[in-house]
Structures are given as C-alpha cells and as structure tokens.
Design brief:
mainly alpha, two-stranded antiparallel ribbon, 9 helices, 80% helix, 3% strand
Length: 265
C-alpha cells in the first residue's frame, strides 16, 4: 500500500463507522439504558487513552529525538501535550454544548438560544475533533517517511478509533430519538457528528507535511486534546452512573484492543 491509499482508507473508515453506528437508531424503540451507556463510554475512554499513548505520545517522543536531538527532544512532546489540553479547554468554554447524564443536563460554553439537540450535537463535534487530528497526523507522518511501519501505525490507529466510533455514533442518534427527534433526523445528526474527523484529518495531514519540524508538537497536541476530552466528558459519564464497574471493565477492554492493534499491525 501507498501512503495515499492508507490515508483514504483511514479517513473513510472513521467516518463510515460513525455513520453505521448512527444507523442503529432505526432498530431501537427507546434510548439506551444506563448500563449500555456506561459500557459504550468505558470502551471509548479506553481506546482513546490507549491511542493517545501508543499512537501519539510514543511517536511524538521518537520523532522529537530524531529532529531535535538529545538536548531538546523532551520539550516538543511536553509543550504539545499541554497546548492540546488548553485547546480543548478553550473550546469547552467557548462552544455552546450540552452533556446529557442519567439524572440531569449540564450546559457549557457561551450563552445561547440553541435547541438541546443542537447543543448535544456540538458536544459530540468537540469530542471528535482531536480524533480526526490524531488520524490525520498519523497519515501525515506516513506521507513524510513513506515507510510501511508508519503506514501500518496510521491504519491501526484509524481502526481503533473506528471501533469506538461505531457505538459512539449510536450513542448520539439513539438518545436524540429518545428526546423526541425523528429517527431520520437523529441518524443524520449522528452521521454528521463524525464529519469533523476526516475534515480535521485532512487539515492535520497538510500541517504534518509542510511543518515537518512541528510533527512532534502536533502528535502530542492531539494526545493532550484526546486525554482532556476523555477525562472531562467520557469517564465521568460512566463513573457517575450506577453501572460504573461495567464502564471500568469496558475501559480495560478498549485499552487492550488498541494496545493489541499497535502490537499486531
């Protein structure tokens, strides 16, 4: 395979997976129960944390060592990681969005008059941005080096994110249907929530291609953003439920799946 083929496959599967997951709304009559929700959030959390470490932080450290040498190689991963967390923090405070828990709804961002379904949709968009950046940077690194190791690394990262995007897509469309939105509109909103991933992925590819020296910063940036959103949004959703142990074991499974992909592919 060539870097172009790997990139097309990677960006396609992460979006297609979200769309397929969103289509499950046509099979349900009611919204997810709290136990199913805890499992989905736990699985997504485990995959994202594992992806951040194996697919982003470790490559950031390796690339930093190659580009900056022993004296400065510690700074790019550290600075990039912190900037990624700050980026998601600022998005959290600026973009109007809504988090739906079992017992209540938590609204964040600037004051607005948007409908609840729009704010929930924006919450998922924020969550998906770092995932798209992560896949795009991995593909950009494959373009830069042209070797099979980085191409397979990009593909494994995309597969891992696609695995968690499938239940995540349904976790958008089915709750929206449960709130009174039509099945067709719930499906479309669930599918569209994943469109930011290939879009930001393409942007990240160009950044990685033309800003070669910034690659370690960018990889760590994506990791910081993913870990921030996982700790801020996903983990609390299953930890605050009555089925937190289901979420914890789903986390372990998700982390293991991604770790295995990194070792095998």
């Amino acid at each position: 395979m060539t870097p172009l083929i790997v990139t097309v496959i990677s960006l396609s599967i992460i979006f297609a997976s979200t769309t397929l997951g969103s289509s499950l709304v046509f099979l349900f009559r009611n919204k997810y129960g709290p136990r199913t929700s805890a499992i989905i959030m736990g699985l997504a959390s485990g995959i994202m944390i594992s992806t951040s470490f194996f697919g982003l932080i470790l490559p950031s450290i390796e690339e930093s060592s190659k580009i900056y040498g022993e004296n400065l190689d510690r700074m790019p991963p550290l600075v990039g990681f912190i900037l990624g967390a700050i980026f998601l923090f600022l998005l959290d405070k600026i973009v109007p969005h809504l988090h739906k828990n079992d017992n209540d709804k938590t609204e964040e961002g600037l004051k607005n008059k948007f409908k609840d379904e729009t704010k929930f949709f924006l919450a998922v968009l924020i969550h998906n941005i770092p995932e798209g950046i992560a896949v795009g940077l991995a593909c950009g690194l494959a373009f830069h080096t042209g070797d099979s190791v980085h191409m397979m690394a990009a593909l494994s990262l995309a597969i891992g994110i696609a695995i968690q995007n499938f239940p995540e897509g349904s976790a958008v469309s089915i709750p929206l249907f449960g709130e009174g939105v039509s099945k067709t509109k719930s499906f479309l909103l669930g599918s569209l929530s994943g469109i930011v991933e290939p879009l930001f992925g393409i942007l990240a590819i160009f950044l990685a291609k033309f800003l070669t020296g910034a690659t370690p910063f960018l990889l760590a940036f994506a990791a910081g953003a993913m870990i921030y959103v996982t700790i801020d949004e996903l983990i609390p959703e299953f930890k605050n439920s009555n089925f937190d142990h289901y979420g914890l074991w789903a986390f372990v499974i998700g982390f293991s799946i991604m770790m295995l992909l990194e070792m095998v592919i």
